[in-house]
């Protein structure tokens, strides 16, 4: 039976991008179904009734959800260009750090993006603490996966794209080359990889999108300041 | 690699630590249990798991591995000659991992919410409703995964059985402390039966302590939960 692969995703979803990159690395052909999250398709809701989210990979009619799980599925089904290490300990470390990335690093960077003043200072310190772990992980390596891009690089890949966009919007340096030389270098190497490069979503569209996402938080802060000013005067 | 020293920093009160211990029982692997007092964390724990500072931590030949689901997969891969924990088919593995992540994401949080609610009947009812919804979803997952057999993993307990089954301990505690039956026959009949089979399994028996033993700890834990912070 011919393999049928479909990927439900959005143009900008950083989780979907992991799967796009993985499929590209493995040299797999697939059909893309672009979703509008404000108006989800019946198919998406049928394939992911639990979370109703992208990405969903459908392989010969069978759906797999959750981006990191999809990466493992792809790696276990198609053996060329392995994404995860063979060694069980290194595999465990990759899984552990990927989860750390999603559970801690991403939320801490997001907090910096949506906060201001004292709150932002504290958020920056927390984010920097998290990033230090990643800097350590890169010691002696070009990629988190070693010589070539692997599972953990794909898990962290959103950073190579999104961080500079967030930095531009808030006018702050989060990954300073002097403090995070290895991480900065990794972000360049990852972005410059020909497989990764051609999958990036358009930067100007991303800047526009994230500026709009930040607006409500700025508005909230402005209203609080206005209230405080009127209370004190 | 499988013959190196195996230690588990854990506790019989922790469902997450229980997962590790059940897995080693399945694989018939001896390990040293370093009992941790989670209300007063040891230097060893803080050194072995500096990121999350939580149990369980598996220390295999001096190297720590953290996060219970990561540990389960590690055990399965290192001691591959023993009975398998994850299914062999990549799709079945993806499904097992998906539901295990769902359980950690949803089920644990609602159990804590029920305990925290205490006498606040409105809050408790809301948390119980959420827990029921989660369990109804898992009942359906069980039908699909088990394909008519006793466990999520088929004829033997596997990854997903361990992921959910480790919480049965706290399901019983909630029953005793809050008078709430989360897994009951008329709502989720298959899970009700599954729970009995799971608890009776040889790999599980000596890991889940008697509910009464846990109650003392549970009372201290819940008191801390309900304490207003700051």
UniProtKB/TrEMBL annotation, chain A:
Catalysed reaction(s) here are:
RX + glutathione = an S-substituted glutathione + a halide anion + H(+)
Name any one Pfam family assigned in the record: GST_C
Keyword set, alphabetical order? Transferase
Q: Name one GO molecular function term.
A: glutathione transferase activity
Say which enzyme class the record assigns: transferase
Q: Which GO terms describe its biological process?
A: glutathione metabolic process
Q: Can you tell me which family this protein belongs to?
A: Belongs to the GST superfamily. HSP26 family.
- Name of the featured protein: Probable glutathione S-transferase
From which organism does this entry originate?
Answer: Sesamum angolense
Automatic annotation (TrEMBL), chain B:
Q: Which reaction does it catalyse?
A: RX + glutathione = an S-substituted glutathione + a halide anion + H(+)
SUPFAM superfamilies attached here? GST C-terminal domain-like, Thioredoxin-like
Thylakoid: present as a keyword of the record? no
MF GO annotations: glutathione transferase activity
For this chain's UniProt record, which GO biological process terms are given?
glutathione metabolic process; toxin catabolic process
Ranges for domain GST N-terminal come to 4-83
Cellular component, GO, one term: cytoplasm
Enzyme class label: transferase
Q: Which UniProt keywords apply?
A: Detoxification, Transferase
UniProt cross-references to InterPro entries, sorted A to Z: Glutathione-S-Trfase_C-like, Glutathione-S-Trfase_C_sf, Glutathione_S-Trfase, Glutathione_S-Trfase_N, GST_C, GST_C_Tau, Omega/Tau-like, Thioredoxin-like_sf
Matches recorded under Pfam families: GST_C, GST_N
EC number of the protein = 2.5.1.18
Q: Residue limits of the GST C-terminal domain? A: 89-221
Family membership noted in the UniProt record: Belongs to the GST superfamily. Tau family.
Report the protein name in the record.
glutathione transferase
């Amino acid at each position: 039976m011919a393999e049928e692969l479909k990927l439900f995703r959005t143009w900008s979803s950083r989780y979907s991008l992991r799967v796009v990159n993985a499929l590209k690395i493995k040299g797999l052909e697939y059909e893309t179904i672009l979703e509008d999250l404000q108006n989800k398709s019946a198919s998406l809701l049928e394939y992911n009734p639990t979370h109703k989210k992208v990405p969903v990979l459908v392989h010969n009619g069978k759906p797999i959800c959750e981006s990191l799980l999809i990466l493992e599925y792809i790696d276990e089904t198609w053996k060329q260009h392995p994404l995860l290490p063979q060694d069980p300990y290194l595999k465990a470390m990759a899984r552990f750090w990927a989860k750390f990335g999603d559970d801690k690093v991403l939320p801490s960077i997001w907090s910096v993006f949506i906060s201001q003043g004292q709150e932002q200072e504290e958020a920056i310190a927390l984010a920097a603490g998290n990033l230090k772990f990643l800097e350590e992980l890169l010691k002696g390596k070009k990629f988190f996966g070693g010589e070539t891009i692997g599972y953990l690089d794909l898990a962290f890949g959103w950073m190579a794209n999104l961080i500079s966009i967030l930095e531009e919007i808030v006018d702050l340096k989060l990954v300073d080359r002097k403090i995070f030389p290895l991480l900065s270098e990794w972000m360049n190497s990852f972005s410059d990889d020909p497989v990764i490069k051609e999958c990036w979503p358009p930067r100007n569209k991303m800047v526009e999108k994230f500026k709009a996402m930040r607006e409500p938080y700025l508005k909230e802060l402005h209203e609080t300041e206005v209230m405080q000013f009127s209370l004190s005067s | 690699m499988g013959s190196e020293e195996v230690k588990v920093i854990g506790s019989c009160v922790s469902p997450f630590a229980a997962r590790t211990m059940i897995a080693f029982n399945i694989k018939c692997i001896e390990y040293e249990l370093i009992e941790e007092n989670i209300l007063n964390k040891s230097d060893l724990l803080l050194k072995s798991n500096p990121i999350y500072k939580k149990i369980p931590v598996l220390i295999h030949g001096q190297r720590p591995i953290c996060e219970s689901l990561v540990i389960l997969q590690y055990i399965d891969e290192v001691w591959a000659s023993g009975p398998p924990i994850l299914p062999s088919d990549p799709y079945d593995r993806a499904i097992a991992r998906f539901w295990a992540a769902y359980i950690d994401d949803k089920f644990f949080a609602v159990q804590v919410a029920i305990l925290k609610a205490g006498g606040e009947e409105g809050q408790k009812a809301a948390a119980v409703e959420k827990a029921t919804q989660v369990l109804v979803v898992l009942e359906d997952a069980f039908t699909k995964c088990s394909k008519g057999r006793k466990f999520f993993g088929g004829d033997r307990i596997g990854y997903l059985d361990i992921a959910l089954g480790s919480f049965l301990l706290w399901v019983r505690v909630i029953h005793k402390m809050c008078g709430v039956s989360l897994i009951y026959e008329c709502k989720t009949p298959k899970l009700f039966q599954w729970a009995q089979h799971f608890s009776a399994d040889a790999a599980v028996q000596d890991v889940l302590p008697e509910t009464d033993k846990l109650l003392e700890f549970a009372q201290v834990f819940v008191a801390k939960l309900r304490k207003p912070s700051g």
